[in-house]
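User: Could you go from structure to sequence for me? I need the amino acid at each position, not a summary. Structure tokens:
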């Protein structure tokens, strides 16, 4: 799923500048919940890395955690399953993914996706994920900028949830 570029924010970047869609509400009929309560413990270490890398203060950290937690919750990804995925994203933030690596991942995803889902089903799920990402700019931008939009574990997690992704 080639949604990436190879530019990576530098260590002094403010994610709210890089990702102006941070903290924009996700449309939902569900009441707000405490991101820290549900996802905070699972994401603590990787959140510390993000904050140290971009220089987040307490308010920025809480806003970013809320955005990340809301996104994982919306995707139906549990805190335990979210932690290793967020670790991958943080790794991509800290070290840019090379174009060669992105190309290799894209080939792997296409091969495994077609094998696992069948060609037509893989294409349908990929279309649903891409459609979802056009409405979730925070997630799309982070996946693009870190190169993790092509990481097989991230893409397969999205493909598995394709039919349960919000369509509005």
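Assistant: Here is the amino acid at each position, in order:
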């Amino acid at each position: 799923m080639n949604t990436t570029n190879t530019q990576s924010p530098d260590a002094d970047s403010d994610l709210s500048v890089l990702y102006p869609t941070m903290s924009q509400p996700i449309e939902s009929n569900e009441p707000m919940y405490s991101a820290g309560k549900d996802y905070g413990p699972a994401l603590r270490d990787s959140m510390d890395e993000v904050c140290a890398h971009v220089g987040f203060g307490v308010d920025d950290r809480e806003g970013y955690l809320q955005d990340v937690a809301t996104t994982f919750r919306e995707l139906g990804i549990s805190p335990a399953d979210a932690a290793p995925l967020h670790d991958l994203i943080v790794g991509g933030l800290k070290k840019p993914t090379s174009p060669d690596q992105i190309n290799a991942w894209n080939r792997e995803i296409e091969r495994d996706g077609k094998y696992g889902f069948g060609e037509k089903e893989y294409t349908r799920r990929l279309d649903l994920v891409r459609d979802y990402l056009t409405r979730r700019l925070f997630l799309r931008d982070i996946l693009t900028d870190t190169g993790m939009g092509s990481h097989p574990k991230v893409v397969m997690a999205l493909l598995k949830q394709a039919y349960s992704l919000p369509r509005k």
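One structural detail worth keeping in mind: Residues 3-33 have pLDDT under 50 and may be disordered.
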